[in-house]
Amino acid sequence: xxxxxxxxxxxxxxxxxxxxxxxxxxxxxxxxxxxxxxxxxxxxxxxxxxxxxxxxxxxxxxxxxxxxxxxxxxxxxxxxxxxxxxxxxxxxxxxxxxxxxxxxxxxxxxxxxxxxxxxxxxxxxxxxxxxxxxxxxxxxxxxxxxxxxxxxxxxxxxxxxxxxxxxxxxxxxxxxxxxxxxxxxxxxxxxxxxxxxxxxxxxxxxxxxxxxxx
Length: 214
Fold this sequence. Notes:
With 214 residues, this protein is α/β, with parallel strands linked by helices. The chain is built from 11 helices and 5 strands; from the N terminus they run βααααααβαβααβαβα. A 5-stranded parallel sheet has the order 3-2-1-4-5, with helices on both faces. The two termini are 20 Å apart.
């Protein structure tokens, strides 16, 4: 069995599909770094409903380098430091690992009953940070991310590319947990057994996994 986890909203307790549960990494960016938070959000991430026109979208689909994109934006929002320092601040602030979910991941690995993967919308630098500095490499067999694949996660081709990479046979139905209902629906269209994540109980009580826990 192949079991997949999303990053933000599942493995990391930060951004979440449910607005009430979000813990923004940039909540104090103006006080800490002098960057206008609202201006940065607008210029870099775009407006709701038009994210695909934003610099961040170009980064997470592998069409633009994150640091180069930030270098073009940060001076306009009042930030005077280096791009590398800003990226480090961002990644460290956006690294609140969910201990309960990682506990489940460790149990799955220890039981040896599944291969465990990450499927996420990321650009190259943060994907490398997650894998190397946050230690995802010690918990997961592989990290699949949108910039590497070349299409956004909200695209059926994202999941089809993973199926091809793993040689997924019809009927295997990889198990997948994500906080966004539209992503869950898309993964299911690709032949996955995807479920909406709200807490670790969604993992423990999944019909194909609950027999692993007493």
